[in-house]
Design brief:
heterodimer; A: 261 residues; alpha/beta; eight-stranded parallel β-sheet; 10 helices; B: alpha/beta; eight-stranded parallel barrel; 11 helices; 40% helix; 14% strand
């Protein structure tokens, strides 16, 4: 499972304050915590704290001073991305493009040039899809365009766009249907990723909803997620779901082995 | 239309494990032997690198094993002396290492004392200059007394010592850490236990980069396919990035082959099966060569004809 740590995001007050005060220790602290929880990528999101490329670069540098985990650059502005990607020591994950023609034409070449991976959201000019068919159609556009620019399937992460269970209850099953079909585009398949916490947005039992939906997504072929990597029960659910899907070899101490790594 | 590239892209690498230490490295071996390091399945060199070819360790035991006379005769009278047997293995059979089994320590065999066993280790180390694999007798309680003495006697020689099991690993971890040896992690034809033993070794503070996995080899006809698929599945997991399964793997081909009817019973018992003189080594060689395809990195072998034939197979591997 590719775990993308979500915590260095200006949506969190401590991160927003850290960006504004240039307090690198807060960024480093969360980089270390998430790396210790086996994050595969550390997502870095400037949010509304600033719109300056140098602030995004500073955040990435702070993370890289502390850990050597690759960066997920949570930004879709080409100018910002081009600057940010230059400071990344390892090939980053670009988060994200949509399936809109102009966006793909702008962002896929940047990913290809830097050997980066990129998340493709299955929305297009007409907005977010509301059924499985539209999701699959947009995913098809992403796959075809990514290959046109020379990206390998492993460099493309398709995001089915998770919608809140509380407000759009019929969407969850459409998402699962779509995810199953994403696995069929290429061999080897593209990665399939999601921003997990959207599913529980506004709900009372957030952690439980996240866990259950995560297990179901894994059962349908999802292999990456942007999530709270420190949520031990969620991660243990993922480890178990992956065993159920025969993605890893079972051992009695599979949980302990993961957390000890 | 362009033909699609269907090559596997592996992300992991099998650990490189070096056995034996030369004078420069604090030991007395003529040269060390390195196994592992692959980034592809065996033979499939177009999908990755295979930096080290598989190696053969010559089977030696402190007490002659309970094998048919025909097989023992092919090895020679030297089978009665671990020192001479080891020398013959190296000088005449051309093996890369010696695998020394202290079966005499077994309370039901000779109940040899830890000191006696350590003396055999010392003598074999003096007699040959290839790296050494050292095994206890398989009786956990006795091995916990025997192996520390043997490990101490071989200190600095960077031996491969076995075996650590789910039920019995703490002593081996302690001695191998103290005396700087490598460990064989053993599981009873069970990939899940194999992984579990590795987790236990890691938890006990042993570096998995110094481990060779052993899935209690089965001889042809007796669960051979189970072991074959386990070796292959473990290797695929390792190549996919599962660090707990990225260790090289060994097979005790001789030890298992000469326990099965087809490799020990002569024509008087198995009419129409051909003479044991030929069939025994053939059984051993076929087992060994097939395990090479599954991903075995170290084969323990005994019969000179089988060794000769499997060496040829290894030479022809890319």
């Amino acid at each position: 499972m590719i775990l993308i740590g979500e915590r260095i995001n200006a949506g969190f007050k401590d991160i927003k304050a850290a960006i504004q005060n240039k307090d690198g220790d807060v960024i480093k602290k969360w980089a270390r915590i998430q790396a210790n929880c086996n994050a595969t990528y550390i997502d870095v999101n400037l949010g509304t704290a600033s719109n300056k490329p140098e602030d995004l670069c500073w955040m990435i540098e702070m993370v890289q001073e502390e850990v050597d985990t690759p960066i997920s650059i949570d930004n879709n502005k080409p100018l910002m991305l081009k600057e940010a990607i230059k400071v990344c020591k390892k090939p980053p994950l670009i988060n994200s493009t949509t399936a809109a023609e102009d966006k793909m034409n702008e962002l896929f070449p940047i990913a290809a040039e830097h050997n980066a991976s990129i998340i493709g959201l299955v929305m297009d000019e007409s907005g977010s899809p509301t059924n499985a068919e539209k999701r699959v159609e947009n995913a098809g556009k992403l796959v075809a365009k990514a290959m046109e620019f020379g990206l390998s399937p492993e460099q493309l992460f398709i995001d089915p766009i998770i919608m809140p269970l509380k407000f759009m209850q019929e969407q969850a099953s459409e998402i699962l249907k779509a995810v199953s079909q994403f696995t069929l585009f290429t061999d080897p398949p593209c990665h399939i990723v999601c921003g997990l916490s959207n599913i529980s947005s506004g709900a009372k039992h957030k952690a439980l909803i996240n866990r259950v939906f995560m297990a179901m997504l894994i059962a349908h072929g999802l292999d990456a997620a942007i999530l709270d990597v420190t949520d031990e029960e969620l991660i243990n659910t993922i480890l178990t779901a992956e065993l159920v899907m025969n993605k890893n070899i079972y051992a009695d101490s599979y949980i302990e082995a993961f957390w000890k790594k | 239309m362009e033909i699609p590239d269907v090559k596997e892209k592996w992300t992991g690498k099998i650990n490189e494990v070096t056995i034996g230490a030369t004078k420069d490295e604090g030991g007395t071996r003529g040269k060390a032997v390195t196994i592992g390091g692959q980034t592809t399945l065996s033979y499939l060199t177009f999908e990755g690198e295979i930096p080290h070819k598989p190696v053969i360790a010559g089977f030696v035991s402190d007490t002659p094993p309970d094998w048919p006379d025909v097989i023992k005769k092919a090895i020679g009278d030297e089978i009665n002396s671990p020192v001479e047997w080891a020398q013959k293995n190296v000088e005449e059979f051309g093996v890369d290492l010696i695998s020394l089994k202290l079966i005499g320590a077994d309370p039901t065999v000779k109940d040899a004392s830890p000191d006696e066993c350590a003396k055999v280790v010392e003598d074999v180390l003096k007699a040959v200059d290839v790296p050494l694999v050292i095994w206890g007798c398989g009786d956990d309680e006795k091995d916990n007394h025997v192996l520390p003495e043997c490990s101490q006697a071989a200190k600095g020689e960077n031996c491969l010592i076995g075996s650590a099991k789910e039920s019995n690993y703490m002593t081996i971890v302690a001695i191998c850490k103290a005396d700087k040896h490598k460990i064989i992690s053993e599981a009873p034809v069970d990939i899940n236990i194999g992984k579990q033993v590795n987790i236990l070794l890691q938890d006990a503070g042993f570096d998995l980069k110094d481990v060779v996995m052993y899935q209690t080899t089965a001889a042809l006809g007796y669960g051979f396919d189970y072991v074959y698929t386990i070796l292959e599945r473990a290797r695929i997991a390792g190549l996919k990035g599962d660090q707990l399964m990225a260790a090289p793997q060994l097979c005790d081909v001789a030890g298992e082959t000469y326990r099965v009817k087809e490799a020990v019973a002569d024509e008087d018992i198995l009419p129409g099966w051909g003479s044991l003189e030929k069939r025994g080594p053939m059984w051993e060689a076929v087992c060994a060569a097939t395990y090479l395809q599954a991903g075995a990195d170290l084969l323990i072998m005994a019969h000179p004809v089988a060794i000769e034939n499997v060496k040829r197979v290894i030479e022809e591997m890319k």
